[in-house]
Amino acid sequence: MPWCLAALFGQAEATTQDFTLYISSGTWPINGAGGTIVDIWGYGDRAGSPTVPGPALTVYEGDNVNLTVVNNHSIDHNLVIQGVSTDLSAIPPGGSKTYSFTAPTAGTYLYSDTLNNSVNREMGLYGAFIVRPADGSNRAWTGGPAYTFERTWVVSDMDKSRWNDVAGSGGTIDTAVYKPNYFLINGLGGFDGMMDPATTLDGMVGDTALVRIVNAGQYSQSLHFHANHFEVLTSNGVRWPSPYQQLDTINVPPMTTADVLFHLNQPGHYPMHSHTSQMETANGIYLNGVATMIMIH
């Protein structure tokens, strides 16, 4: 079904979704105080244009998915969707592989490169795989909680001097030492994350936001919402029983996901930030880490 008709009438039946991602090296800017240019390896939807995180891949329950990954980098890579795909084998330099599978139940999943003792993932090879209900509704799953709009937050960390600089120049990383000094939300540091319309929760009183949280990093992230509590719908793909747990802070371990429902009740502008002080910084300078804004009109 064409996208425009699916949007109007819902995804009536499974379709075939084809994606192509290209793996390549590049650089990524982290703006603001403490910012820098960091060497990355990333997925991109165009050859030679890696992004951090990689493109969000969105499908519907039951879709037939063909995901082709082209390795334009100089070392082995792969792509694994946590809880969805099982092929861990390498794609050699210059090679490609197509992963074909049926989209699972609605929810939020992490895709990443699992090779090289987590180095490939730390360098930027990760992204969100989103599965929506088969009927195309604004619900967390078929018959589940409804929402007005959604956001995806991919949080991560990088150790520039010991990992990115070394790997980017072709060196060998001592993986026993990892001391991240950059912390990102959707590839952005603090003030950029606070102004990015794809990241901020910006809506009207009475709206409800579904927030899809993906921790692609190597440290746990505790995210703290101001203005209101939220409902935890899923943790790492497992649905919580209703009534849902009410929290103002959620801990998301590395390589896991969580879906939360946030009700916009109180007018005003409020922060959402990491509850770990170090993760609110860029190379030790506050406030340029994991943070964004909640704006309720």
Q: Can you give the helix content as a percent range?
A: under 10%
Q: Name the quaternary structure.
A: single chain
Strand content: 35-45%
Radius of gyration: 19 Å
Domain module count: 2
CATH class of the largest domain: Mainly Beta
The CATH topology label of the largest domain is Immunoglobulin-like
Largest sheet: 7 strands, mixed
Span between N and C termini?
36 Å
Specify the number of helices.
Answer: 4
Element string (H = helix, E = strand) = HEEEEEEEHEEHEHEEEEEEEEEEEE
Shape: globular
Level-2 CATH architecture of the largest domain: Sandwich
Tell how many strands the DSSP assignment holds: 22
User: What ranges have pLDDT less than 50 throughout 5 or more consecutive residues?
Assistant: 1-9
The computed structural class is mainly beta
What is the overall pLDDT average?
A: 94
Looking at CATH, the homologous superfamily of the largest domain is: Cupredoxins -  blue copper proteins
